[in-house]
Amino acid sequence: GQQLNQSPQSMFIQEGEDVSMNCTSSSIFNTWLWYKQDPGEGPVLLIALYKAGELTSNGRLTAQFGITRKDSFLNISASIPSDVGIYFCAGSIQGAQKLVFGQGTRLTINP
Amino acid sequence: GAVVSQHPSRVICKSGTSVKIECRSLDFQATTMFWYRQFPKQSLMLMATSNEGSKATYEQGVEKDKFLINHASLTLSTLTVTSAHPEDSSFYICSARDYSGGGFETQYFGPGTRLLVL
Question: At a CB cut-off of 8 Å and minimum separation 6, what does A103 contact?
């Protein structure tokens, strides 16, 4: 079945630094979604991407749908303490109901 | 974004009892909802796809008689963990599929339900 490889698995950064994480797949996806999950909570949608090459921002977050449709990245600029959490990429292929999830990137910020 | 609620947020039960978890889409209609299970420090594991008015589709390895799913309306899906045992203790999360954004679909997640079986 489809698999998503998300990297890095964890990041330890200083407050104010920029963050970059990405996901790659073995299949072509027609939707990429990025979520953030805080401890004990459900994932919260950050950015949704629907077209190859699409670059979308949400505040300090920017995500892109790769041209090959097999990858996506998420950037966070000028990180702040509330950015701490686990970030998941998720994608779906044409006609599929369900999402495939990456393994998550755990972000830790040193003040 | 759209809002999905789950109830209860936390439940503790005795081994052998059944537990029902509700998932509601509050401001949109969802013909399809999904149930996930998440173990500590792991990604979400899809258990089943819940379709309004029809039988749920279970992922491989998920016992349909153990995890009963009912999607009786466009805003409500329920997951019942029957005869719960300690190994069923986990974090259960639902999501709802929303097409209202100009035809592009998105999934919104509920806040999750922490189940502890004693």
Answer: A4, A5, A6, A9, B42, B43
**Distance between CA atoms of A31 and A91, rounded to whole angstroms?**
5
Residue B94 · residue B79 · CB < 8 Å: yes
- Min Cα separation A34/chain B (Å): 11
pLDDT digits (tens, 9 = 90+) for B61-81: 999 999 999 998 999 999 999
Are A22 and A6 spatial neighbours (Cβ–Cβ below 8 Å)? yes
Q: Residues A71-87: pLDDT tens digits? A: 999 999 999 999 999 99
Smallest CA-to-CA distance from B107 within A104, A79, A100 is with: A100
Pick the residue of A23, A92, A94, A99 with the most B CBs within 10 A to test the interface with B by mutation.
A99
Question: Chain centroid to CA A44: how far?
Answer: 11
* B110 and A36 Cβ atoms separated by less than 8 Å: no
Amino acid symbol at A84: V
A103 reaches B (C-beta below 8 A): yes
Tokens 């299949």, residue located? A27
Residue with tokens 């109830």: B7
- B30 in contact with A at a CB cutoff of 8 Å? no
